[in-house]
Amino acid sequence: MKLIVGNWKMYPRKLGDAKAIVGKLKFPAKKLPRTKVVVCPPTLYILPLVALLGRSPILLGAQNTFTVDEGAYTGETSPAALVSSGATHAIVGHSERRALGEDDAVVAQKAIAAVRSGLTVVLCVGEAVRDPGGAYFTEVGRELRASLSGFPKNMTKRLVVAYEPIWAIGSSALRAATPEDFREMSIFIKRNLVDRFGKSAGFSVPILYGGSVDEKNAGGFLKEGGADGLLVGRASLDPERFSEIVRVAVNTR
Fold first, then answer.
1. Which is an annotated GO molecular function term of this record (predicted)?
2. Does residue 162 contact residue 208 with C-beta atoms inside 8 Å?
3. Which CATH number fits domain 2-250: 3.20.20.70, 3.30.70.260, 3.100.10.10, 1.10.3810.10?
4. Per residue in 91-122, pLDDT tens?
């Protein structure tokens, strides 16, 4: 089973535009053998998009959540409220959230709260610099272990890890990441998960690639890279491009 997650970030500006994007995804995604698709729009759009999708196999997720289900926390969105709105997944620890000051301790608390509320967590980890000495392994390992501190061992079925090579994303990217880069890191991440949760549970956690994914490189990361799925950014806002990425996933053995 391949997992394709679309992260819309703070786009689009209007709910009508969000509905138009999802509406164009409905037909290509009616039958998705061996593939699960999750769209993560801005939080305000989740409830109306759930209603629009109806029985479509496309699932809705959140781009962030909070550490508790309710309380005097102005402006936060609880995982319980997300579940009540129809969300099934939540992205936690995205590099853009971490850049805003979110540390590993907060990420860990959010991950725990999310799975206990019934959400599947898409936990993001990744290094800012890929140095020739291999110190990036230490950085990713530390971030992964700290972000999973206290995570219940009996809830790994609701855990997904997305690897984001920050150095390969955006206009300031040093170079494009390769399927080989991902395969190397996914093996390392899997070893850490086995150390944390045991062999059976650790190997069962899907590892996604997320870093400037588009319809041109999706196949390489899924096939040569061996990714269990993809975390797609900007391309997920284009119905044709995102549908093509989904088709590539469906056709990948």
1. triose-phosphate isomerase activity
2. yes
3. 3.20.20.70
4. 999 999 999 999 999 999 999 999 999 999 99
